[in-house]
Amino acid sequence: MALLEVSAIEVNYGRVTALSGVDLTVNEGEIVTVLGANGAGKSTLLRAILGAVPLKAGGIRFSGADITRAPTHSRIASGLVLVPEGRRILISLSVEENLQLGAHMRTDTTRVKAEIDAIYQRFPNLAERRHMLASCLSGGEQQMLAIGRAMLAKPRLMMLDEPSLGLSPLFVSKLFDLIKELNRDGLSILLVEQNTGKALGVAHQATVLELGRVVMAGDPKALAADPRLQQAYLGEG
Ligand code: ATP
Prior knowledge:
This protein is about 40% helix and about 25% strand. The protein is α/β, with parallel strands linked by helices. Helix 3 runs parallel beside helix 6 (about 140-150). The protein is globular, with a radius of gyration of 18 Å. Bound molecules: adenosine-5'-triphosphate (ATP). Adenosine-5'-triphosphate binds near residues 36, 39, 40 and 42. Keywords: Amino-acid transport, ATP-binding, Nucleotide-binding, Transport. This is ABC transporter ATP-binding protein. Belongs to the ABC transporter superfamily. InterPro entries: AAA+_ATPase, ABC_transporter-like_ATP-bd, ABC_transporter-like_CS, BCAA_Transport_ATP-bd_LivF, P-loop_NTPase.
């Protein structure tokens, strides 16, 4: 069943057309990856889905409802969450305070506490540093914290904007293991990545953007074998 349906959306920044006629579907339980060079419109697509930039044309449905004109906070309340590029954790707060922020809209405090404990079990590095400032974490640990915080919002669809950017190879592997694990636990994921090989390896569907348009879409295995994609994005591994 379709969880997210983006239909023919157009987004402009002044005279710059950032997205044009973009279609995208994420079915319940899927990982969908969006690939493309810098400036292709990937972040804009995620911002449009969250309602952070207005649409010039097209529509968005989430979980059966038309959210095209819904404000961002109600989209978040309905189960959409974005882990933005650069992670945006609050480095002057502790690890634990960052996690608690993810749950700020929830009133089931006992469950929240249990879920924070579950996150600590999953990420022992965060548990050890729970009372330290988030600025003390490595880039990889900050990314795990950003994802942990997003999980506490109880999303139905988690959008990740270039989560592997700047991480060491070890953390990149850990990150992709985590993405697969969260998906196995039932979370649907929309993944924007520059690490094309890894992203195609975990995704159920892939879409390639170029200058704000969808130029390729479909089965990740078929896309990975497509000479056009190999030439454009897989060259550097
Ligand atoms: P990157 O990987 O570099 O973030 P991207 O694929 O996410 O690239 P976007 O950031 O969505 O691409 O940008 C798409 C286009 O819109 C680019 O031409 C960019 O210069 C332009 N753009 C993005 N944000 C703004 C903005 N706030 N104002 C004006 N133009 C913008």
